[in-house]
Amino acid sequence: VVYRVVSLALDGAGEMKRGAIVAALMAGMNVPFLVFTGMEHTLHVLLTALVVLGMVMESRDGRMPAWLPAVAMAGVMVRYEGLALAAAAAIYLAARGHRGRAAVTAVAAVLPVAVFTLFLHARGLPLLPASILSKGGSLAAHPGPEGVARLAWANFGTVAGRTLWVALLLLAMAALAPRARADRLLAAAVAARLGV
Fold first, then answer.
1. What's the angle, vertex CA 21, arms to CA 167 and CA 28, rounded to 5?
2. What is the DSSP code (8-state) at residue 10?
């Protein structure tokens, strides 16, 4: 899936160049070892790559793949973090003129979260799972913009955080560069997802 994304994004690039970029991406994002560390689920990684593939495919020919809302919904069902990418995809699709399909994508992504939240509430549990609540501990101590700024600064202090900020900066620059509108919107959507 990553190879297909790179091939579409770099149409005209040679086979060796595309292969080298895919290998660098896979190693740089530590994809092969994420499942062993328990940090990511391989199904979540696959669904994330498929949502990005759907957006790249749309940016090339203007047609949204019919499977994109289902994949976005499945990504949210696997991990709540999929909601950020689904939101970025829905905003991207709306900006590209697919407003009805963007709404379907947004509803498909929010529906599992809403249903699970109601299930938790009916059982007398907190509205969010413990895994999400434990990650928000630093924000609970400092709610609002100050907490977000503190968390962003703390993340900048790590190698992974600095890498994320560099990627965010590069995508923001691509979103502002004189390129095709679809490419700028796609870069902005992915940058927005990284920012969340």
1. 50
2. T
Categorize the per-residue pLDDT at 39 as very low, low, confident or very high, splitting at 50, 70 and 90: low
CB neighbours of 151 closer than 8 A, spacing ≥ 6? 138, 139
- 21: nearest Cα among 34, 31, 10, 36: 10
For the chain, state the CA radius of gyration. 18
**pLDDT for 42-78, tens place per residue?**
788 888 888 888 888 888 888 889 999 999 999 999 8
SS (H, E, C) 128-191: CCHHHHHHCHHHHHCCCHHHHHHHHHHHHCCHHHHHHHHHHHHHHHHHHCCCCHHHHHHHHHHH
Instruction: Write the single-letter amino acid at 123.
Output: R
Question: Which of 17, 45, 8 lies closest to 30 in space, CA to CA?
Answer: 45
First vs last Cα of the chain: how many Å apart? Answer: 23
**Looking at residue 196, what DSSP letter applies?**
-
∠ CA(130), CA(132), CA(135), 5° rounding?
105
Rounded Cα gap, residues 47 and 26, in angstroms? 15
